[in-house]
Amino acid sequence: MNYVIRKLGFYAAALWAALTLNFIIPRMLPGNPVDILLAKLQQRGGNVTPETRQAYAILLGGDDTQPILAQYWSYLANIARGDLGVSISYFPAKVTDVIGASMPWTVILVGVSTVLAAAIGIILGALVGWRPGTWLDSLIPATTLLAAVPYFWLALVLVYILSRGLGLFPGQGGYDVILDPGWNLPFILSAVEHATLPALTIVIASLGGWLLGMRNMMVSTLSEDYVLTARAKGLPARWILINYAARNAVLPSVAGFAISLGFVVSGSVVTEQVFSYPGIGSRLLSAVTNNDYALMQGVFLYITIAVLAANLLVDLLYSLVDPRTRAKG
Amino acid sequence: MSVELAQGREQAQVRPGPVLTVENLSVVYETDRPVHAVKNASFQLGRGEILGLAGESGCGKTTLAYAINRLHQAPARIASGQVTFHDQDGEDIELLTLEDEKLRRFRWTKLSMVFQGAMNALNPVRTIGSQLDDALRAHDRSLGKQARRTRCAGVLQRVGVDPERLGSYPHELSGGMRQRVMIAMAMLLEPQVMIMDEPTTALDVVVQRDILREIVRLKEELNFAVIFITHDLPLLLEISDRIAVMLRGEIIELDKAETLYRSAVHPYTRKLLASFPSLSGDRGAFIRSGEYDSFEEQP
Amino acid sequence: MTNIQPLSETAPVSPTEELATLAKASGHRPTAAWRLLLPTPTPWLITGLVLIGGIAAFGIFGPFLVGNPDAISNTGLSGPSPEHWLGTTQTGQDVLAQLAYATRGSLQIGLLVGVLATILSAFFGIYGAYLGGFADEVFSLLSNVFLVIPGLPLVIVISGFVPRESRGLWTIALVLALTSWAASARVLRAQTLSVRNRDYVAASRVSGERPWRVIAVEILPNLLPVLASQFVFAVISAILGEAGLSFLGLGASGSSTLGTMLFYAQNGFALPLGAWWWFLPPGLMIALFGMGLSLINFSIDEIINPKLKNARLVRRRARRTARTDKKAAVS
């Protein structure tokens, strides 16, 4: 129980840090984002009232009328209310609406890809570590090469070969624009088809890390006394592999999920760009291009919250997987 | 249930002759300069006998024990020798040339091991119960889930551990308890030989005495043979029938405990005996002779 | 059975003896202790070193040997030819020349960020763990928080707020370093804690060694392999990070790196127009460099975790023994 409380406390602290970062960054950097934002807002035909200016000043900085702490407080209050402003690039849509529309795409893409990559990587890593000296060993340098490949370049190559070259998968977009979005079969199928290449990119590029980590851990675990006891007990080889070796070797991979997820999210942002995939990463990038500061901040916030939530989930899961954490409390 | 089985075995014809024969066993560590860890070790283990294997660290006693059960791992390699298990059923099994699957089935059912430092010998992420259970499942398909559970509970009770502990994890038990669990696990399938590698070294002397008494008592009940490996020669003098002394890979002396104690032949054995100080200056009495049957009564 | 005579050297059976004589014949002396700290030259390590060396040489000396990367010509988007070994870009610029300069740019920034990030992680990881107590708790919390906040989005946001003119090399380098030190710091902290609690450090302290000497003589040598491994890792992720930033158009203004090359390739519609010679080489360069660094990291891993080295040596000896056995069986 103590473990759960500690973890919740930590993630609360991390969330606070992210919010504060989000608050500080626009204020620390040169240039006045509020003016730029309001100029563009007016260009798009928006109504700029003193209240609007005030709201954006609170959100982005540039409001010198109030002391910094008061600004901070109002900022947090706004966020708690769910008011993240209006997006310029998608004017007049609210930031929260823009994010809401694109979030599911990314969550599904990244979620499925990460789970796949982790599952394949861990299983292969366990096999490579269990029985060294087979052809599986050659997987290690191969996946190392792939892990050093930039996500977006791999995406380009895959599009070149599989989409442009062989015409197997579409290279752009999230779905066929002719179709109606919704929970109907043609749409879902199209969505899956369009998600294949981005997912493939993410899986191939992140597989290496999982594989290598698991393999190294397996080599360590196999020299542990409890594996020796298991062999002395005459347990079948596969049983030992799964229940004694892999079961213990996988723990650091679960614990290190945070680092891995961070990389995957970073990689997926750029991948979405290449594929013009309608996810949250694309939104972030178009926000940067258009100086849509409100959207930029909003997306960053949402990405951070999503990653923190995923990590919290995994940490709680870890306590189920490793009984020793429950005791330490 | 197990008690009846043991009695049944006693009543049946006990096959004459040793239960284990080791002939000229040599084990080499294939490092840059090969190390001959065990050189031409030969001995016989009688049924129901406790054979002590003594020697200093690095003399090769653990390597020998692992090699008998083919648990040695590269870079260790068995260079020569023969290990024959004379099964109670009448069969003679050559351990070094046994096929993998037969070896797997042989292990734990006929010969089991208790390892040093049960701290690491138990899987930290699974319960005691599941670890006892999978030994049963691997070797005895006939038992149902309930029967297995009863058997595990029974064997824990035998070594003095509360059967409630079946659901506990290894880190929730004390060192002494873990070692008892290891012994219980080794007894599960009622093997004919138990190899114990420093089973009490990591424990304090009080717990050590309790566990040793347990081992001797269980041996009387179930009539299994024990190879007891330790550097603690006086301990062996108390519980062993015969003792083998190893030095740098060779068995330099092998004799009855009494004879070894009173008139050791090899100079190293004498040195080893002399190196253990006596608490009182006098020679104490042995556990086996029953002169002192409680800890408080010792001088 | 019982060997009452003092020890005699019994002649072991071949192929053990043969292996021993083989070793002696091939002039193998047992390795000195200090040599065991260095990585063993395996094929992997050599491949890694060759890759790194080759690419670094290309980056350092290449720009002196190739033509002007900015010179535009009329032969736009042409494939590899004798004049242009890697073809030309959309505006007729020589891809090979661009590649050389871009490699240099990427290496520069990779090294810079790698050093910065390692210094940061060493400070927060090692120093914090050495101090212990409250400082350690704070440093540790800081690294965990930074670890959990996703890196590239943060970099994008920071870069996004900085107007293009102010985005110099140092700004980008600093931003990249600030978002990538956390993972290394955690690893270094764990390693420092483990070394700090070991008996020989305690013995050194108890015998009155001064603190700086304890750190320099007892703790640091054990941290060096891990530090080296983390530095290599930092360089890889710096190059990849910078490439990603540049590809998105958020990199250092006026710089020429492999990432910017890919940015122009993407904007010049290299992919739809099938100009593979434009976008393939830069990415491949990054990948090969990263692979070389990873291979070196394997060897460093073996020093840190000797069990990995044992596993490899066991396999090698098993092959050798099998060969000797086969020879014995045949003869």
Written description of the protein model:
The complex is a heterotrimer of chains A (329), B (299) and C (331). With 329 residues, chain A is mainly alpha-helical. Chain A has 15 helices and no strands. The model of chain A has no long low-confidence stretch (mean pLDDT 82). Chain B has 299 residues and is of the alpha/beta class. Chain B has one domain (3-277): 3-Layer(aba) Sandwich (Rossmann fold). Chain B has 11 helices and 10 strands. Chain B is globular. Chain B starts with a helix and ends in a 25-residue tail after the last helix. Residues 1-9 and 284-299 of chain B have low confidence and may be disordered. In chain C, helix 7 crosses helix 8 and helix 9 (258-267) runs antiparallel to helix 10. Chain C starts with 15 loop residues before the first helix and ends with a helix. Chain C is an all-alpha fold and 331 residues long. Mean pLDDT of chain C is 78; it is low at 1-18. The chains are: A mainly alpha (329), B alpha/beta (299), C mainly alpha (331). Chains in contact: A-B, A-C, B-C. At the A-C interface, helix 1, helix 6, helix 7, helix 8 and helix 12 of A face helix 4, helix 5, helix 8, helix 9 and helix 10 of C.
Secondary structure: elements and pairs:
The complex is a heterotrimer of chains A (329), B (299) and C (331).
Chain A lengths: L1 H27 L4 H11 L6 H11 L7 H14 L13 H36 L8 H10 L2 H15 L19 H38 L2 H8 L4 H13 L1 H5 L1 H19 L4 H10 L3 H29 L1 H6 L1
Helix pairs in contact in A: 1-14, 2-3, 5-8, 5-14, 6-8, 7-8, 7-12, 8-10, 8-12, 9-10, 12-13, 12-14, 13-14
Chain B lengths: L1 H10 L6 E12 L5 E12 L3 E5 L6 H8 L7 E11 L5 E3 L5 H7 L4 E4 L3 H4 L6 H12 L5 H14 L16 H13 L5 E5 L7 H18 L2 E6 L2 H7 L2 E6 L2 E7 H6 L4 H8 L25
Chain C lengths: L15 H10 L17 H23 L29 H37 L1 H16 L2 H11 L7 H28 L2 H8 L4 H37 L10 H10 L8 H29 L1 H25 L1
